[in-house]
Amino acid sequence: MSVTEVHYQTMSEARAHFSTLIDAAEAGVPATVRRDKRRAAVVDADRLLHFLVSVHPARAEVVAEAGGWSVLLPDLPIAADGETFDEALDEMVAALREYAEDWADHLRHATNHEQNWGLVQIIDLSSEEQLKDWLRGDRVS
Q1: Which domain holds residue 26?
Q2: CA distances from 32 to 18, 38, 45, 75, 130 (A)
Q3: Do both 21 and 83 map to the same domain?
């Protein structure tokens, strides 16, 4: 059976057809739910991650200095250091996770951070290895 787009006008309708909503998201077809005047899209997480990393490359800058490594993301207040390149990447993943938590807690309301929604989605949807691939500029799978 092929899944076509699904659009529910109420939360009750979406709850009653939750499996169909998830099937549509997994198939990659449009799936939305309306609540009051707002509409939410339901999408497959892997498809969303693939799209977001393709439009938001990390552009990480890596610097070897003073017997260690530094990783930073231009235009973002996120950086990490390590004695080895791999340690610096591990520290950067930890820093990204902490930033995502802070963003969800309070930074999303700050004018200089609110535009980082896509970055936070990348962080949240990615495994540690996927984040390292993204930071290195490798294909995220």
Answers
A1: 6-43
A2: 11, 10, 15, 33, 28
A3: no
- Does 100 lie in the same domain as 61? yes
Q: Is the dihedral of CA 16, 25, 55, 139 positive or negative?
A: positive
Tell me if 52 is assigned to some domain: no
Task: Please give the model's pTM, rounded to 2 decimal places.
Answer: 0.91
Is residue 141 situated within a structural domain? Answer: no
- Render each residue's pLDDT in the chain as its tens digit; 141 residues: 567 899 999 999 999 999 999 999 999 999 999 999 999 999 999 999 999 999 999 999 999 988 999 999 998 989 999 999 999 999 999 999 999 999 999 999 999 999 999 999 999 999 999 999 999 999 898
Looking at the structure, tell me whether residues 32 and 97 fall in a common domain: no
Residue 39 in tokens: 């509409």
